[in-house]
Amino acid sequence: MSDSADQRPDRQVMKTVAVVAFMVVALLYYFIRLGGLAITYIVNHGFAGLALGIGMLLLPVVGIWILWATLSAAFGHQRLAKRIHEEGLEVDTSELPRRPSGRIQRDAADALFAQIKTEWEADPDNWRSSYRLARAYDYAGDRGRARDTMRRAVALEKLERQPGE
Description:
Radius of gyration: 22 Å
Strand content: under 5%
Structural class: mainly alpha
């Protein structure tokens, strides 16, 4: 029974990777087709086609940039999550009271946030404390600050890995 429980996270990860891979391939296919159509408009349809083609050509460029930014952020977050897990520094929410939806109750999330923010204030330049603070923001429902703090944690961790640069 424990073997199947140990394999469930791997299956979930594989499903997630498969969905992301499918989406990336589908988007790349779409961008290539749209780029080809844009070039056709630019070459064959006069001034109006040129304007429309240039606009259409910008969509794949912007789309590829958004795709790259999203995936690189996701890989950075996953790298930090793995390191935090290996170091045993995950934010423990197992004992916190939850709503029927599964989310942590607001008062408990706020108390957890206050505790972790105090830890962060003691060492704000440590990626681990920034990562934990980002998770606490997320549990407290402040997704904007969670994203900003997670970006900071990724940047700090990168500096730690590459001290000479």
